[in-house]
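INFO batch 0412 | record 1 of 1 | parsing
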Amino acid sequence: MSSFSDNNFVKKLGELNNTQQSIQTLSLWLIHHRKHSKTIVQVWLREMQRVRASHRLTFMYLANDVIQNSKKKGPEFTKDFATVLPDAYKFATKDAEEKVKKSVDRILGIWEERAVYSKHFIEQIRLCKPGATSVPAETDLKIQRKKKVEEYVVTLKKKGFKVQNAEKSAPPTKRKKMDEMPSLREEIEAMPKDETQVVPDAEELVKRLADLEHSASSDAAVREKIAALPPEVSDINHLSKITDKETAIKLFRQVEDACILLSEYNFRLNAELEERKQVGKILYDFLTCQKEQVVKGEEKLQESKQRLEKVGVVREELMSHIRNLPDLTKLPDVEKGLAPLPSAGDLFSQ
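INFO prediction complete | emitting tokens
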């Protein structure tokens, strides 16, 4: 495959058409160059804004193919696309035909059905559609709040926390102690052990550790945006200062923008936490394998030392045997021939 560069990718996007072969070919090329996922996502969004409205759906099909087919290789594209999907959805549905809007919504529906992204995150993306209702009815707000509470309760139950029915139980007077929550090390050690696991690849582990340096918790730009949010979006006391509908709608939109910002950031933080757990598990397995290799190495070293001692003993015995052999230099010189044996007469005359 050809090497990756911004210009090369832009050229391929220009050649992209709405056929399955064209989309899958470019998708495979992008997955092959997944180490450039952040750049790929930014270029994809930038070029999507430049193409005509009818061609933006093809860009969404491409993103869908890359996201779903890259999950087995790694979470890079799933995480990086999540940062731009709200804007991409807004561009894809802007000035688009109803058929195109339904196709884009179908992509979101697939992501929700296959749990590619959380239901809450999909709902936040849908709120970015141009012309979407900016101020939901009070009943809709109650339904949304109830759904969010139910989803949060389910998440807590999956993590092993005991959750009481909020409608029946009295409000808690004291906050739960943080020491009741398991640490990351305890969670990793509690993960099921894979008996057939192979030794983790060191290069892949180093790459994933390096990627964590640019994770959501290190995103200073978003943290600054959150810090710069006006106080009225989080302080209920400001509601008493609202005197007209226009002010109420303006505040509601500010709250909605803050919710979207915080929801996206929370989603990224959750994804980072899961990635840290996975990397922690890989690191734990890697260290375990290395410790096992150290034990095996020490056993082999002891065996080699024992063999060396045996060879030393044999060597000493051999040297002792050599020292006890007769001195060959004292034997007659046989190279010039042996002296003639005496005759019988010589023997008897003597």
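INFO post-check: The chain has 14 helices and no strands.
INFO record closed
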